[in-house]
Amino acid sequence: MESSLYNSPYILRYRHHLPRIIPKPTKTATLKQSIKKISKEYCAESSISGLKHIVDDNASRFERVIWKLTMISGLICSVSLVWITFMRYYRAPLVTTQMPEGVSVSKIIFPAVGICTNNRISKSAIKELARKLLQEERNKNYTEKQMLSLLLGLGLLYNNQPMNDKLVQPMKLHRALGDYDVNELMRNLTPRCEDLLIRCVWNEISMNCSDLFDFRLTMNGYCCTFNYLRQSDITFEDKDSGTRSIDMYKYGNKSNFDYEQGLKILMKLNTSDDFYYNLPLQGAQLQFSDAYDFPDAPSGSFAMQLINPNVQMVVSVKASFTEASRDIQHVPVKLRRCLFYDESSYLPFYTHSDCLLKCRMLFLFAKCKCTPFNMPKMVNKRTCDMRDVPCLKMFNAQSTTVRPDVDVVPPELELDMVGGGINCPMCYPSCSKTAYNYEFMNTKIWPDYLNTVPDSDRDDWL
């Protein structure tokens, strides 16, 4: 009876006209509503292409779905691009910037310069050696001509290319020489700087060539070197020896940017003293290297140009100075892929060129139990002599090819033709280095005409 009373038409009509009690929204519902409203407003007003179509009330549901799919694919592409960029930075987290103020030329050290005649053995010196050897009892069966022919085999110490075994017999020559020091022997047989260099000028000041040039060891044997600041031809000194430090780069000859300044040399090639050419050309080799690196082409710190007779050569040198901040030293070496001069256990003073040189020398020592005379000496290591020529010839190509530090070596390098090259994974580039670029210009000289020019029309230094 009571239930039917509440459901009577009069009661229902009365309850319909009563004000409705709306429940108070929760905080979560309010937050969702606000986010929905703000997101819709952002999409409607955003300049990003496509967003406003997603919230457009006039657009059909199908159109909004299409726009949503388009936006999702764009978002995936953007995330992928960000990830690729991040991984590139992670693999090489370094930034290279150009110094806005540049570097003063006076602060950049002049490169080391070497002059090596293509004739590596002096005829007068080899004849004198032949006369001394013929006085030895062991060589009494040789004539002077036969001895000179035998001594031609000394060229194998420069050039490890194949030669006629009937004409050159290394072991026979080794016995004829007796007890000898290879470095002293080859040094005494090399044409002297005083016979090669006639006039020298440094920064517009005429100087004695003997005061500018030293007779030092390079990859081409003993040559006339300028500004070669390596203290000794005995390399890889002990860390405590103190013979080399970063302060050494503050010294050495420095040039000006003036075209007329720099180094000038007048050379005389005495073809009548030629005996053995390491290159089948008359003239000389002009070589450049870092002032403290051993001049060695396979190790990288080397540039060379041939000087022909009766030619004026002008060399323009451009320097590129790269300096790494110590702030990157916390980055693992495998990521930054460079080494500072004082953080290698392989060398007391690290440079990329010296690292490759040592790697190559240790390879040859492991194979031939000696190191070539035209590389720096190593403490407690024997210098190769004529007995070791066959071994040096066998491993010459491999010793001059350093395998790149990559997972897969490109077949285009054809390393299989040189025994796979040498692996030197410890040799990273130097973090700070001065690199040089050279431009050469040759002008033909006509001696018959120049000899008629009066002294008043010549340059003062000539």
TrEMBL record:
<dbReference type="InterPro" id="IPR001873">
    <property type="entry name" value="ENaC"/>
</dbReference>
<keyword id="KW-0812">Transmembrane</keyword>
<keyword id="KW-0407">Ion channel</keyword>
<keyword id="KW-0915">Sodium</keyword>
<feature type="transmembrane region" description="Helical">
    <location>
        <begin position="69"/>
        <end position="90"/>
    </location>
</feature>
<comment type="similarity">
    <text>Belongs to the amiloride-sensitive sodium channel (TC 1.A.6) family.</text>
</comment>
<keyword id="KW-0472">Membrane</keyword>
<protein>
    <recommendedName>
        <fullName>Sodium channel protein Nach</fullName>
    </recommendedName>
</protein>
<dbReference type="Pfam" id="PF00858">
    <property type="entry name" value="ASC"/>
</dbReference>
<keyword id="KW-1133">Transmembrane helix</keyword>
<keyword id="KW-0894">Sodium channel</keyword>
<keyword id="KW-0813">Transport</keyword>
<keyword id="KW-0406">Ion transport</keyword>
<dbReference type="GO" id="GO:0005886">
    <property type="term" value="C:plasma membrane"/>
</dbReference>
<dbReference type="GO" id="GO:0015280">
    <property type="term" value="F:ligand-gated sodium channel activity"/>
</dbReference>
<keyword id="KW-0739">Sodium transport</keyword>
